[in-house]
Every structure is written in structure tokens, then in C-alpha cells.
Amino acid sequence: xxxxxxxxKQFDGFAALDGATxxxxxxxxxxxxxxxxxxxxxxIRHLTGIFRQDAGEVLVDGEPVWENPALKARIAAxxxxxxxxxxxxxxxxxxxxxxxxxxxxxxRYEKLKEVFSIDEKKTIRRLSKGxxxxxxxxxxxxxxxxxxxxxxxxxxxxxxMRRQVWSLMxxxxxxxxxxxxxxxxxxxxxEDVCDxxxxxxxxxxxxxxxxxxxxxxxxxxxVVFPEGTEEVPPELxxxxxxRVGRIxxxxxxxxxxxxxxxxxxxxxxxxxxxxxxxxxIFIYEMGGADYAVKNIIL
Amino acid sequence: xxxxxxxxxRPIYEQxxxxxxxxxxxxALAEDVKLPSVRALATQLAINPNTIQRxxxxxxxxxxxxxxxxxxxxxxxxxxxxxxxxxxxxxxxxGLLSELRYLGVSRDEVLTLLKEEKEDD
Amino acid sequence: MRSKTLSSEAPAAAREKTPxxxxxxxLFRKNLSRFWPLWAVYAIIxxxxxxxxxxxxxxxxxxxxxxxxxxxxxxxxxxxTMFLYGGxxxxxxxxxxxxxxxxxxxxxxxxxxxxxxxxxxxxxxxxTNYLSGLFxxxxxxxxxxxxxxxxxxxxxxxxxxxxxxxxxxxxxxxxAVLTLLSLFFYSFxxxxxxxxxQILAVPVFYAILNVLxxxxxxxxxxxxxxxxxxxxxxRGYSGxxxxxxxxxxxxxxxxxxxxxxxxYEKILRYDMDGLNAVWIYGAAGLVFAVLALLAYRRRRSxxxxxxxxxxxxxxxxxxGVAVCCALGLGQGLYALLWSQYLDSATSSLTGxxxxxxxxxxxxxxxxxxxxxxxxxxxxxxxxxAALLAVCLLFFGVGTELDFFGVEARVPEAGQIESVxxxxxxxxxxxxxxxxxxxxxxxREFHRTVVSKKKTQGNRARxxxxxxxxxxxxxxxxxxxxxxxxxxxxxxxxxxxxxxDAKSGAVGLLDQLCSDPSVQRDNAFGSLAxxxxxxxxxxxxxxxxxxxxxxxxxxxxxxxxxxxxxxMAAGRFNNNLTDAETFRSHxxxxxxxxxxxxxxxxxxxRSTSRSxxxxxxxxxxxxxxxxxxxxxxxxxxxxxxxxEAKYGDADEDAGKYYKDAPYAATTAExxxxxxxxx
Lengths: 298, 121, 677
Known about the structure:
The complex is a heterotrimer. Chain A is α/β, with parallel strands linked by helices.
């Protein structure tokens, strides 16, 4: 489990992290979303032990990450800008990682060589940015980590490779119980792979839920009320309502079944539950708070 | 086996669940055929295994599949199954029937359809 | 406990491989393979400096077959030179380069990101990188020394004996010197690297810190000489300031000194001097390594790319740059605009302060721009600029107004151990004394001069325009019991009237110059003369060539006695006059006496002194004439007379020692001395 408790970090007076709290359950795939400058990368750098927090705690498996080599040996990080030695080939970087990570698997390295089909003797500098990213993934996965922490990981990859990479990670999650933390702008993609989501803005984690809870606790109904009902019944806990002609679209904070049941007492002519995308869920969740929601969701 | 429609707004686990259900109902997944493991499906579709597990759990609760510890999940199972699902489907049928009525399909035509389906049993 | 259970889930192999993360063989090897080009350059240069040059030296033989002992002596000399000078400068330069290489990862966020996520402690990162650089340096030394031994081996074996023993000793010491010097400069550079996130700032900080203290000391002294009357501007430096500027200190003090034989014919031996400093700096190197580690532990990773990484160091950097610019560039600007003569009499406080303020502010804003990495810093940093301006003004005005009473200070008689003085007018009179009476005279002169500061200032300014005053340049250095030096120099402007009346400061000075003990000290210094063994009298032959007459012991002794008589009567003073008078009184002939004398506590040895005569030395003139040394053909001429006859006297100075039968005479006199005793 990864935990950040009230993490505060200031850069020359500017609070990049202002009491950020997050919990990533073991074996989950956690998506960290937020606008640019929210502090996602900064928080990630704390989780991987690069930065030291000014206040608060950063724990993995209950231990602080800071200066903890035993713990770091089980964490693999893929930053948005991966570093490799200037003249190093893939093989050279592999040897470097192998020397540091006790669980490094040569078997996996060979297997993934086929998957990525990149010449291991080639100088990394000469590969395209996308292929460099792939190498980063390749080597990180070979470290057989318990925790994978990724900062905008699939940005430079083509759709085929994206899927390939996610596929590998999902395999690890199901087989070895790897915990994955992913920061991204792209909610649509995260919807497929995440089971937990957290939104960050201005140095704080505003909201953190499991996908299941999010999906089960909100429903979009298309309702047509019978003649005579001109308004939405006020006693209904409606997050949002809009109308086109006689068709109301209502967002309710409850499960689909319960919503339909409650609707029946109004004898609607039409009740239809429409699925909500993750984006919409967030928009309506955050709609109650004072945030310019458009800014948060890209 | 299952393909996901990326433009489909439904949650993933629903798509998987419904997709599997369809395969079982149509008989494409015969009785006692082993379903792909959660892991295999996760890597094949590149989606979260917990999501798949959730779909499998719901299918099991609904009675479409059963699982043997250590061996995996299999098609078929307690057909007497899920009341909730039955109700859901009945509602859907009701919706379809009202649309058919709107289109002027007669009661007799519907009964004929019903007989045809039942005969395939 | 929960955490213990969880961590025990990790396979045993994992725990073994990272036993705390204090060192990484992988990283070490990676550093070696990454930085091999730098290593190669270092090795190649050393290869040329040591084994190859040794080889070349051994190969270049003349017609005769080489004598191993001679060759080995030469080898030893060359080795000493190379170890000391080569060792110093190679360490200064490559110490910094290797430090920059192994710690370059601290200067980009990308590489910091990789290194600090690896399962290794900061101490481990530091230690591994630090040792990598050291390893590269030391192995190069070992290999090169071994190669040198290989090249020299044959000669060493052939020569054998004490020389061979000395060879091995030199090799040993040389290795130690190389090790310690490179250890120090490398560690110092590593230390500097911990405080910045910019790779190019490392050599800059390193270079500046190597000479900073002595530089600032120099600048402050120069400023003091601008504003404080009598301060020895720019000459000399504080000893402690030099210690704190490593490259400067070692550059000054590491020397290969040669010991000549008594006849100054042959160099007997070469020795490496200043080695004590090497041991001390070597130890300091270890201290810097530890300090660097401590700094690294506290370093914030996000400072990669920052000019100064430690927050507390930023104002130090900012104000430090500002003050150095003010002191250095400010005074330079003043010299450019106002005056080339940086002395207190003619300097203008407003001018200096103005220049210092301008350059100080430029330095301040430049430093702020470097720190904030932006050009738009003027609005936010005006408070610091104001503070700086106020401080500079305070410092400038305070120094000028002499808040600390530095100008008027004359040490108490009880504090003084000895005084060194130099009085330069037409001639030069200098000496050192512990005699309380003379010290009293000097102190009185000093007090008088200080009290006449304003007058002197006016006269100095006048002298720039007209030639109305004579000048005498006086330097007084008090050696105090406490061990420190108190030094002052004054340009004293006086009129002929004042000199004739023997009044005021110049009168006191004239008194001092005429003092017999002063005269004696000026001629013979601190020597205790045992015997006079001979002499030499230079004169102008009728044909215009230089002639020399050798005096035997008897003659020389008689002349010496006459000299003492003249000195006792105070007749030797021809210092404080104008040029014309001087040249009409000063004798241009060379008179040299060979002496056996003791210098302090050392053994008596033969030496010589040149005596400057003037027309007042009646006793000496009489003696010279009586002894037949001075004749019609060998006349005593004043400079004025000589110029009237032959033209410029000074041109011929070089001709004199062409025919010196010096060695022979000395041997003669030594033998005579031995015979006499």
C-alpha cells in the first residue's frame, strides 16, 4: 500500500504540495489525474524517494520511502523524462539496473525482447522518443517490482504499443499483485485500466474513490414524466437535471436499480438508465464543490 | 472472444459481463466450458483484472457461471439464478413489446415469435 | 510489528543484495566506463611528464658514455621538480575535472531522478562516486610511477649506493605528494560541487574559492591604502589569508630549492621545499570529503539546475559577489577614471565610493539574476540592493574617517620587538634594529608624520602639477612581540629649507640617516664582521674601459677602519638631497670589501659588501690615497664628474664582472683566514 499523509512541499515559497493525502491499496491500479501544475509529478517524486517532504508522511507498506534502499528495491519508477547514460545501449542500461535491483529477471528481459522487438545493442540515444519509452518500460518490468509508479507513461506510444504495455502491466497486477500508480491527463484510457482514481489540483488530492464505488453510486436517467408533472419532484436527490422537450435527463447519486425503483412511484412514461463515463462522473461529483470543473478535466 | 467497443459508454465490466452472458445464452460458450482466466483476459484486453473479476463475480451471482477453487470459472451453473436479472430482462421485454405495439405489431405476431423461440429448447 | 512482517515477505536474496545500500559496485564500474576519456587524458599527460620524459632524458647522451651517478642525480632532480610542480598543477586542474565528472548527475533533474530512485542510500551514492574519482586518480599515479621505475631501473641499479637510496626515497615522497595533493583538490572540488546545481558553476566556485581569501585580503588592503594614510597598499599579504587560499599558498610555497656550494659554482643538491604544507592540506582533503558528504545528505534534489543549491548560501553568494565586485572592479574602475596612483593623499573618497557603489550594485544584480535565472529581478530585490548600498557607504566612510584610528596608531614601545625601516631618497638606507633608542627615534618620526597628514596631502596634490617638493619614501615595519607585523609607508614631501633647518619630520629623518649605527647597519646589515680579507676597487681607465684593482688584506683592513671612522662621524649620509646635489657628492666608483662574518647565529663564512662613498668621507679618501689605491690613473669620480667626462655612468654596470677573479680571491682569503687562525 502506498500512502501519502498530508504531504507538504514548498519550492521557494510556492506550495507545490499543500497537504496532499492519498491511499493506494495494495494490488490496485490507481489513476492520479489533474490539470497541469496540480502537483502530480511532485507527489510522484516524493513516492519514489527523490524529494523529501517538508511535512507529512510518505509511506510504502507502512515504511517511509526516504533513504530506504530495501523498499526502493521493490519500487520501479518510470518518469515522464527517463534518464539513460549518453552512450549506453539497451544492454548497458539493463546491466546497470540488474546491478541494483535484486529481483531483476533476465528471463523476462529475454522474453520482452521479442515483445518490444528493439535491438538491444542499439544506442538508446538513437532510438525515437517512443521507443525510448518502451525501453524504460521494458527495463522497469524486468525489475519485477511490487510497485510501479508511472508519470504520464504512455504519452509517446502508438496505440498498439500502448495496449501492449498495459497488457503486460495488467498481467503483473493479476499474477503478482503488483500495485500500479499512474498519473495521466487521459481519463478515457484510465477508465479501462484503473480500479481507483484520485483527482489532484493545486497541491491537494480533492477526491479519491474506487471506480466501483463511483460507478455504483451515480446514475443517469432519462425520464419522461406523465402528463401533469411539470417539474422534477423536489424530494429526489438530483445532482443535475436538464431537459429536452419532455425528456428529462437526471443525474442521481444512487445505484441504477434503486433509482429506477424510486422513479416508479411517479409513474413515468419512460425510464432509462444511461451509462456514465468516468469523465461525467467526475464532472458531477465535483459539480457540488467550488471548483471550476472544466479546468480540472481535460 | 470478447471484444470491447471503445465507443461504448458503458463501464467495462458491464461490457464484459454482457458479452460473456450473450455467449453463454446463445450457447457459443457451452455448458462446463472453461472461461478464460482473469489474468489471461486482462492481458488480452489490456484492462484491469479487478474489473474482470467483478464481471465474473456478478455472472456467478446471476447464475450464468460457476467457479471451482483452484481450477477457474466455467460456463453454466445454477440456472434458477438471479431474480434481479430476471426482473431486469422482463422489464426490457416489456419495453420492447411496447415499442412493437407502437409499430403496429399485433399480439398474435408476438405470440408466434414466442412459440418459435420456445420450440428451439 | 506490521512493517516487519511485510518486509520479511521480500525474498531473502533481495535483502542480501542491498545490505543497507552503502556502496554499489555497478555504479562504480559504470563511472569507470563512462569517464574513461578523462582518465585517458590524465594518464597520457602523466605518461609524458614522468616515464616518457625520463626516457627522453636518459636517451639524450653526448659523445661520452654516460656516468650512472650523474644520470641518476639528474633523474632525481627532474623527479623532484615533476612531482612538486607537475603534481600541484595536475591536481588543481584534474582534481576539479574528476569531481565535476562523477558528480555531474546532480546538475540535471533527469539524472537526479534516476540516481535517487535506485535502491541505494545517499551515503552510498556519495561514497561510490567519490571513490570512483579517487580510484581513477590514484591508479594513474601508481601506473605512471611504476613505468618510471621501469625506465629508470637500469640507471638506479648501475649507480647504486646512497644515490639509489635517495632515488627510492624521492619515489616514495613523490607518490605521497601526488596522492595528497590530488586528494585535497579533488575533495575540495567535490565539496564545491555540493553547493551548486549547475555544472559550469563548479569550476568557477572552485577557482574563486581557491584564491578568494587572499584576493579579498589584497583588495581590502588596496582600499585601505586609498583611504588610510600610510597603509602599505597591496604589497604583501596576511599569512593566514594565504593558508586559506590553497592553490595560491601551494603555488607560492612548493618549491624545489637548490643548494649551492660555497663558491656558488655548482649546485650541490635539490630539495623539495614546503612539504609540510602538503601533509596538512592532505589531511584537510579528508575533512573536506566528510564535509561534502554531510552537505550531500542535506542537499535538496530539486536544486538540480540552480546556481546555488543550499538556501542559506544564496545570500552569501549574492552579497559576496556584490562585495567582491565593489572592492575589485570598483577600485579598478576608479583607477581607470580618476587616477593611476592609488594612494591616500590624492584619492577622492566620493570617487572611490561612487565606483564601488556602481560596481557593487552591478555585481549584486548579476548574482541575483544567476540565482533566480531570470532578468526580471529588479523590483523584487531592491531591498537587498539598498542594504548593500548602505553597507558600502558605511564601510567606505568609516574607513576614510578612520573610525578605528588605524592611521594614527603608533605601537607602544613595550609592544615592539624590532623595527625594519627603509628610507629611499636619492639613495637607499635600510636596516633592522632592536635598539630602544633608535626605535624611539623612529616612533617619534612616525608620530610626527601622522600628525602632518593634511599638509602632506596638500603637498602630494601640488606635486602632481609642479616640482616644488623633494620626496623621500619611508617604510616602517614593526615586528611586535605578539608575532604580527605592523607596517606603514609614507611619501614624505619636504622643502630644502626644512631640510636645512632640520625641522619637522624630515629633520628627524635626516638625523636618523646620519646616525652612525644606521650607517653601519646600512653598509653591513646584521653581519658581525670578524676580519676583512680583501677588496676590490673599480675605476675608469684612461681609455674608457673599466678597470679593477684588487686590495690585499692589509689594505682592505685599513680602508675598513677608515670607513668606520667616517660612519662614526656621521659623514656617510648623502640621502636626503636633491638629485643634483646627490650626483655631485656621490662617488660612482665601486668599492667592495671581502669579509669573514657571522650572520646571526650561523657559522662565520666569507661574504662581501659594496660600499657607496660620498665626498664627505674624508677619512676613507685619505686612507685610499695613502694606500696608493686611488691615484691619478685611478681617480675617485663623482657621478657628476663622471658624466661630464664619459657620459651616462649606469650603462656600463654590466661590464664590471666579466673578469672577476672572484673564486680565486675567495679561496685565497679562506686559506689566509685558516692560516691566520
